[in-house]
Amino acid sequence: MRESPIVFEGRRFRVERRAYAVRGISHHYDIIVHPGAAVILPVLDDGQLVLIRNYRVAVGEELIELPAGTLEPGEAPATCVVRELAEETGYRAGQVTPLVSFYSSPGILTERMHTFVATQLTPGPMELDAGEEIEVTTLTLAEVLSAVRAGRITDGKTILALLYYERFACERGRAR
After folding, report:
1. Residue 82 — φ and ψ, nearest 5°?
2. H-assigned helices in 77-167
């Protein structure tokens, strides 16, 4: 009897059972297939960073994170960035610049996260999705790095994007 390749299909992802041969022996892996996501590092004109406090049902906690969202079918990451920034923070960006792309958990998940720096921000109304509990906060880069060091920021995509930004983008002069 042959297994179905799709084990579960949800609104934002599906789980597939895939066969993969290692040294000639077939093994089955359950893989979460995800369309990818866009992460936004919003930088105000004064250099402060815009983050959100976001209640995450999966971990039962409010996390301090960078705004982010799942790509819609056929949507380019840069388009998703503009949409999610407005929805989750109310800010509109005059410029978005690619920062880094990475796989969030390649052992089980196909999700590739595309991170952008958003600048030339203008405030506007938030457009939260139903069920979202989000509060906008601003911090300096030094305050954010201190929060990462102290374990107050525990979201992986946020830690990666902030440290990459501080280490590489600021160093090159591409960003503040």
Report:
1. -60, -45
2. 77-89, 141-149, 156-164
Counting every residue written for the chain, the total comes to 176
Residue with the two structure tokens 């960035």? 81
Q: Angle, nearest 10°, between helix axes 141-149 and 156-164?
A: 130
Q: What is the DSSP letter of 165?
A: I
DSSP 78: H
Joined tokens for residue 27: 């093994």
160: Cβ–Cβ under 8 A, 6 or more apart, which residues? 100, 102, 115
- pTM for the model stands at 0.90
Question: What does the alpha-carbon distance between residue 134 and residue 62 come to, in Å, rounded to a whole number?
Answer: 9
Tens digits of residue pLDDT in 39-65: 999 999 999 999 999 999 999 999 999
pLDDT in tens, 74-90: 999 999 999 999 999 99
Question: Maximum Cα–Cα distance for the chain, whole Å?
Answer: 63
Q: Is 39 exposed, middle or buried (0-12, 13-18, 19+ CB in 10 A)?
A: buried
